[in-house]
Amino acid sequence: MKQDKRQEFENAVKKYAEVNRRNGGDQWIAFSTIYGAQQGTVHFASLRENMAAVDTAYEATDKALAKGVGTANLPKFFASYFATIMDERGEIRMRRPDLSFNFPDTPEGRTRMVAESKFMRSSIVRAKPGMTPGLTDIWKKIRSSMETEGAKHAVAVSQATTGPSGVFYFTSYAKSLGEFDSQHFDLAKAMGEEAYRSLQKDISEVVAESRVDIYRMSRN
What we know:
Layout: H1 6-22, E1 29-35, E2 42-45, H2 52-69, H3 74-82, E3 93-95, H4 107-116, E4 119-127, H5 132-149, E5 156-160, E6 167-174, H6 179-182, H7 187-191, H8 193-206, E7 207-218
Antiparallel strand pairs: 1-2, 1-7, 3-5, 4-6, 4-7, 5-6
């Protein structure tokens, strides 16, 4: 969003959400970056069973807006929103339950975890070309150490299927920023110094770049 248009942006999005909700449109969660490389960015995320469900969601939203705003008023409706943003992009990610850790197995459990959380922390890691299998192998070793040591927090793993290839998102949830302290895991202690040094070498060979972002969930 444009920093000098924050209030106008929030007003436009709230109106969009209200019309969509009232008229049976799509469902999503919203969260904004508060620490990291993309501050001032607001994200909207939805779950899809498959690619066909993307079409269904767009159709539901279009119908909801047409019903709630009126087809003739849609250009003006969207103009007020686009005037508040610098740019936008869409991305499709694939959930990786085979890589996730302590993440609820059921939709109800996942919904409850998200609903009870106020913050999300994501480690975004991009593998070097051709090194995606190596990155997943490294994470499996880390996850195995976490399982052995009885780590309690959950990590949801997803992989980008659009945009740059080999990008993974390792996301944990918390009710407060302080809760992330309890999620700290001493990997060097769990693996042993020698194994940990070897793992760090492996990481340097397969990872192109990484960063950590923290988001605040938006309830309105």
